[in-house]
Known about the structure:
Number of domains: 3
Shape: globular
Strand order of the largest sheet: 2-1-3-4-5-6
CATH class of the largest domain: Alpha Beta
Bound molecules: S-adenosyl-L-homocysteine, iron/sulfur cluster, FE3-S4 cluster
Number of helices: 13
CATH superfamily of the largest domain: tm_1862 like domain
Structural class: alpha/beta
CATH architecture of the largest domain: Alpha-Beta Horseshoe
Number of strands: 19
Amino acid sequence: MNDHVPLKKLHIKTYGxxxxxxxxxxxxxxxRPLGYEVSDKAEGADLVxxxxxxxxxxxxxxxYSEIGxxxxxxxxxxxxxxxxxxxxxxxxxxxxxxxxxxxRAPAVDLVVGPQAYHQLPELIARTHRSKGERLSxxxxxxxxxxxxxxxxxxxxxxxxxxxxxxxxxxxxFCVVPxxxxxxxxxxxxxxLDEARALADKGVREVTLLGxxxxxxxxxxxxxxxxxxxxxxxxLADIPGIDRLRYTTSHPNDMGQDLIDAHRDLPxxxxxxxxxxxxxxxxxLRAMNRKHGRQxxxxxxxxxxxxRPDLALSGDFIVGFPGETDKDFEDTLDLIRQVGxxxxxxxxxSPRPGTPAAAMPGQVSDAVADExxxxxxxxxxxxxxxxxxxxxxxxxxxxxxxxxxxxxxAIGRSPYLQSVYVDGAVNLIGQIHPVKIIANxxxxxxxxxxxETVEA
Length: 455
Ligand code: SAH
Ligand code: SF4
Ligand code: F3S
C-alpha cells in the first residue's frame, strides 16, 4: 500500500441475492487500491455504496429510505469538517431505475449498474469533479470480467464465484432479464484462474453463481462450449477445492450430464436449489415457466435416482395473478410430495414493465398474506423434520469460524445447516466428520469424531 495515499472509509450495503454479495466483494477489491478500506458503519464513511435489488417492491423502496438516512449523515459529517460523503447506488435498482434515482434522490452522486462497476474508480474521480454521473445501461459482462483481476480478498474457506449472468427465461413476474440482461457465460479458463487463486488463499468450498447457473455454456480455449457439469469436473481437479455448490438452477436446464455429476463427482454437494414457484399447472403456464408440475416431479425422481441422499430447496411465490384456493392447494400438495430441506417463499409483488403486473385477477394482500403464512408453516415443519432426521448421523462439516463460546467452532453440513461443536481448536478451513447430537433452532449441535491437532 502506498504510504502517501490517505485511507478513505468505504461502507457498502448489500441487498438481494448472492450475486450481489459477490459483486460487492469485487467492488471492494476494485476500490482497495484507491485507498479505500471497508468500514462496517455508514456513519463517517467517505464513500457509501448501496448495492441494490429490484426483485420485489419492498427491496427497491428500501433504497430510497436508506438514501434519506445517508443524506442526514452526510450533512453531519460535513458539519464536523470531515469532508464529503459520496453516495453511490449500484446493482439492479441502479440498472432498472437509474434516471429515476437521480431525479427522485438528488443526494445520490453516482449510479452504476451491475455490468459497469469495473468503471467505479473512473466514475468516482469524475463525480469528485462534477456531480451527477450515471452509468448503467450497459449489458456487457465480458468487459467487466476482463477488467477484474483474479486477485480477490477472501474471508474464510468458502467463496462465491459468478460463472453466468443474465436470464433469457422471462418468467412473467420477474425483473431479472431486464436488470441483468441476456444469458452470458464466462469463459472456462477465466473461471478456473479465479478458482485457483481462491484455492491458493485457502478456499475449500466454491459456490458457483448464475441467475440460471445450469444454463452455463462458457467457451473453452478451443472454441467449443462447456456445460456446467464439465466446468465442475475441471474445478474439482484443482487441489484444495473440495466442495462445489451452484445456484440458482432452472428445472429446464438440468441436463443429464449435470445430473450424472451429482452421482459421479464427490465434490458436488448433495443439495440443490431448484425453484418451481408454484404447484399449479395453470399458474406455471401464466408464469411462463415452460415446465409443468409433473415434469418437475419427474426431474426430481431422475436426480434422486442419481444421488439418493440429495436434499432440495426451492422458491415459491404465492398470490400470483389468477391464483385460486385450488391453485394454492396444488402448491402445498407439491411441497408435501417433494419434501424440502428448506425453501424461500414470497408474496407476489407486481413489478413495473413485467407482463404479470398487467394481468387480470390480482390477488388481494390479505389473501396472499394468509397463503404465505400457511406455506411458510409447512416449510418450517419440513425443515425441522429434515434436521431432526440428521440427528444421530455423521456428516462432513467444513469449519468456517469460531463460535460465540470459547473452544466452539461453527461450520456447514453438506446440506448447508450450521453445525457447531465444542472443545475444538483451530478447525477453521478443515473438513471433519461430525456426529450430529442435537437439533437446535437455527443450527445443529455435533461432536467431532476425529482427534484434532492444534495447528
Ligand atoms: N434466477 C433465479 C432467481 C430469481 S429471483 C430463479 O430463477 O429462481 C429469486 C426468487 O425471487 C425467485 O425464484 C422468485 O421466487 C422470487 N421472485 C422473483 N420475482 C418476484 C416477484 N415479482 N414477486 C415475488 N417474488 C418474486
Ligand atoms: Fe427470473 Fe425466471 Fe429468469 Fe429466474 S428464470 S431469473 S425467475 S425470469
Ligand atoms: Fe435482486 Fe438483482 Fe439479484 S434484482 S435478486 S439483486 S439479480
